[in-house]
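Q: Predict the bound structure with LYUYDEPV.
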Amino acid sequence: MSASKILSQKIKIALIQLSGSSPDKMANLQRAATFVERALKEQPDTKLVVLPECFNSPYSTDQFRKYSEVINPNEPSTSVRFLSNLANRFRIILVGGTIPELDPKTNKIYNTSIIFNEDGELIDKHRKVHLFDVDIPNGISFHESETLSPGEKPTTIDTSYGKFGVGICYDMRFPELAMLSARKGAFAMIYPSAFNTVTGPLHWHLLARSRAVDNQVYVMLCSPARNLQSSYHAYGHSIVVDPRGKIVAEAGEGEEIIYAELDPEVIESFRLAVPLTKQRRFDVYPDVNAH
Ligand SMILES: NC(=O)CCC(=O)C(=O)O
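A: Predicted complex:
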């Protein structure tokens, strides 16, 4: 597939690094709306906006069920209705961070990203596939699986600009999701995220740049701002990396919006110069699925 088809035209994007969420869901949604409005005032051509992981609920395993919502496009829940209106009002594609999702059939809870088009339609959702379960001595212990269940499928979204893949935070450690989306022709991987202050300095930039270089796609990681009053200290540093592995925008640790323009020419020229897709040797590694 030619790169001009991968991304049909230049697109301006914004990542909103919101402060770590307060216990008040409605206040968190309103704050997200204020920042989206600010982004569109500062950069009126912005067409795609990303919010962080768990932007309207505490990032805490004992709180996920309490804040969970049933995601049903026919009966929109609080967050779905709010984000749908926001996307429609500003005519943007909105990757609405993540919210805890309750599946009413199974009573399971998922960490789920909901994605809206410019008309405010819920076009897809991604349930976090790889749960953040770690024990780092003298560092951090966190076990999402205490209350969350893992998603069961990769997610690639079709838009008027082309396709992008969605993963959630810890998902970025597993190259397979990005690889699958890239092979379907995605121009970018988007990860609403909330790394912590132990693993963030070690791996955040490395993983963003690796997924970009592996797949020659743009990579966007959107974090909450660091809030030392909350139980979980997010790393911040929301970041946009281009298909060459170059960091084109990066936030600090506080509340901030970062902007970037994704350019099909950057994808096309780098793929021509370093033609990885043509050079793959599935004859040498036939166990790796070519599709
Ligand atoms: N919210 C998460 O998935 C955190 C992932 C993380 O911090 C990591 O090191 O991986």
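A: Residues 11-275 form a domain with the Nitrilase/N-carbamoyl-D-aminoacid amidohydrolase fold (CATH 3.60.110.10).
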